[in-house]
């Protein structure tokens, strides 16, 4: 971290036209943490509160061009990097080659990958044939990978590990197994999809450097947990995964340990959910409030 009092993080992610997820969620999260956000666009999605209608991947040259401009000018400024939607082989190749260049000068910068595979409405955000490229060239240079349960199951299956994840013990073994195969430093599995009857949503971190598990318990942040927002019974908060991984990026950029960063980011997401509001046609989806800390200044 430099002596300036504003941090600087980069998000390499997809654009969400309703600005609840993707790079828009990342930039809001960065700003709420007093961090200047840089952004590289990988895909442009057409979406609204009802779902994702279209996904347009950027050409490789466009991703490379953005990263080249950022690296040329901001290499010494960047404190953390978050990666979201990476979509296809050519985009992953561009990201991996440019980040390898960046890492020659800055191998101290934490890189957090949220392995987004499919949107809640079913749109493909990682083409199946691109998984190989991701695990060969990208995850080995990543500090922390943050799958949710379906993503963890999908990735384990790619490595021929057939595992169901229904409880904390299975989350623990899955996180450790994934860390070994993905060759990243740490894996954190988000428990929002855990099909348990209780209201707990545990996240499990496997710290591959210290060979240690950390379990973070909290009230459920998931589809089964409903809350009344603006008179509607809300069961879905769009962009919680993006927000959590970008909040972790902020805390790690500030020099906080990976386990402390996960704990703090859970609280940030919780506050944004508690203060959420409703727009658009969906009767079950609310928007995260990234301004929760400043609510008292609202007019
Ligand atoms: O929430 C995952 C996600 C990330 N990034 C973009 C998305 C979505 C889900 O729809 O559209 C751009």
UniProtKB/TrEMBL annotation:
The keyword Signal belongs to this UniProt entry's keyword annotation: no
Alphabetical list of InterPro entries matching this protein: HMP/HMP-P_kinase_dom, PM/HMP-P_kinase-1, Ribokinase-like
A cellular component term, taken from the record's GO annotations: cytosol
Keywords: ATP-binding, Kinase, Nucleotide-binding, Transferase
Domain Pyridoxamine kinase/Phosphomethylpyrimidine kinase residue range list: 16-283
GO biological process: thiamine biosynthetic process
Protein name: Thiamine biosynthetic bifunctional enzyme
The species this protein was found in: Acrasis kona
Lineage start: Eukaryota, Discoba, Heterolobosea, Tetramitia, Eutetramitia
